[in-house]
């Protein structure tokens, strides 16, 4: 009989499996670098803290968040042994509809890439009304979405190998 989950209330949001066996890529956007640099720092530290080996982490920068989909596709095509890709970016609402197009494109794009390769592609993109909201979520009063993206990547890499 298939193993069953424990009561879901036993699971902590931050209960993370050991990442020692996994190879994970991080693609980070250069737009709003003050924010994305902190997201990247959080993600990298979290991967290392949970056992992912430094030599098994690939880090690459792309110009803007729009490029994250293409980056995830290229990474998964070139590195067949990757267990997950983390996409980090920060899109801040402006006066035009650019924000909506970029956010929709990234959300749909990285979902499709994950499905195409049957690999976890993690959405670590802040979509905020202003810079302060982004700072609050990249190491400020609301934590760091980079950390969250990293432990989600390890959990989904574990899922990939145990499902
Ligand atoms: C053009 C643009 C704008 C206006 N705003 C952002 C943003 O807030 N965050 C971000 O990551 N990128 C932005 N970009 C750049 C686009 O993501 C992309 O790099 C360009 O449209 C070129 O494809």
UniProtKB/TrEMBL annotation:
One of its GO terms (biological process) is riboflavin biosynthetic process. It comes from the Bacteria. Coiled coil: none annotated. It holds the Pfam family DMRL_synthase. Keywords: Riboflavin biosynthesis, Transferase. It catalyses: (2S)-2-hydroxy-3-oxobutyl phosphate + 5-amino-6-(D-ribitylamino)uracil = 6,7-dimethyl-8-(1-D-ribityl)lumazine + phosphate + 2 H2O + H(+). 5-amino-6-(D-ribitylamino)uracil binds at residues 31, 65-67, 90-92, 123. One of its GO terms (molecular function) is 6,7-dimethyl-8-ribityllumazine synthase activity. SUPFAM superfamilies: Lumazine synthase. InterPro entries: LS, LS/RS, LS/RS_sf. GO terms for cellular component: cytosol; riboflavin synthase complex. The active site is at 98 (proton donor). Its EC number is 2.5.1.78. Pathway: Cofactor biosynthesis; riboflavin biosynthesis; riboflavin from 2-hydroxy-3-oxobutyl phosphate and 5-amino-6-(D-ribitylamino)uracil: step 1/2. (2S)-2-hydroxy-3-oxobutyl phosphate binds at residues 95-96, 137. Belongs to the DMRL synthase family. Catalyzes the formation of 6,7-dimethyl-8-ribityllumazine by condensation of 5-amino-6-(D-ribitylamino)uracil with 3,4-dihydroxy-2-butanone 4-phosphate. This is the penultimate step in the biosynthesis of riboflavin. This is 6,7-dimethyl-8-ribityllumazine synthase. It comes from Pedobacter cryoconitis. The gene is ribH.
